[in-house]
Amino acid sequence: MSTEKTKSVAPSMDTELARLVVDRQLATCEEIEKARLAQQASHRSFADVLVEQEAVTSSQLSRLKKLIQESRDRQLTGYKLVSVLGAGAMAKVYKAVQLSLDRPVAVKILPKRLSENSEYVKLFYKEGRAAAKLNHPNIVQAIDVGEAGGYHYFVMEFVEGHTLYDELANGKVFSEEEALKIIIQIATALKHAHSQGLIHRDVKPKNIMITPEGVVKLADMGLARSTGDAEAAQAEAGRAFGTPYYISPEQIRGEVDIDFRADIYSLGATLYHLVTGRVPFDGPTPVAVMHKHLKEPLVPPDHINTGLSSGIGEVVEVMMAKDRAKRYASTDDMLLDLQAIAAGEAPLQARRQIKDNVLNGLADAEQNGPPSADIADAIQQPPAVQSSLLTYIIALAAALAVSVLINIVMLLK
What we know:
The chain is of the alpha+beta class.
């Protein structure tokens, strides 16, 4: 591509003003043309004519001029901002064109007030570096980070599509088949991230993009942390990082040694939301929701949506175990079970984990007296844990009872 083609000629203030007025439906194209003719005939400013013809008010004009100036301040060398894709408390994301390659990209820009805060800037670049470590078809690809005009920016792959949250917000409940296709793709993305020593820490529907072709991509590495970053872990100790509806118990407690199992929990909460149409735990405040993640038993998804297979209930149970030692031992094991359910087969890894959990609980009960709260809860639950778990509980309880009886008989002899 020649240099001439990659140069971006900045539009005049009048042109940008006219576009904004029409975009915001403050005036029609015909009214804009009428104002242009009046400007040419009187040699007054285009902005003054717009106000005189009551296309805009003086205060609206001031706001529009401010927007244009801010946009010009944010112009990045090599990129042309096209439109706003979304905005949050931390940053605004734009659709842009990378001029050198003539391709669409997404550009996240830190607001001016945060660009002047060294801590936020440090976190912003940390996100870019974390994303740059990952190269996977189910992860939004990082392209560039930098600073221009006092603004810090992060350029990434532009994903044509929408988020999972968009569909859930419109009341959609996903079929088991649809949900598994999505979750399996994110599980493979997490497997890659975990193999690179990165924990996402904010897996949720808003951070999952779906293209028109059905390709699913994990986005937003803003909270990602390296498992080997002891300095960051200590600095964040005791603070809850994550989104209340999907956060793992250990993140709520602010534990230092957060690992891949936190992402497994959040992915389980996301799967739960997809197939039931509701979050696993709800409450009037974020604190109330997080308290339920810590203390309240999970209502199995197949008790809410009875059309689900028993296998998906078992998998979610293991993914969302409050004690991370009772979750999947690896992202690989979780992926094997998700693929097994999708193929109509039994989730063998989950059943093995459930069996081990019950065996360990009963062993503790025999050694230390009354069963622990976790085992008591599991026994008191309706067939939520599925028939396989109930079979183990009954058989092992019977064996324990027989053992106690034999001991009593031996003592009486």
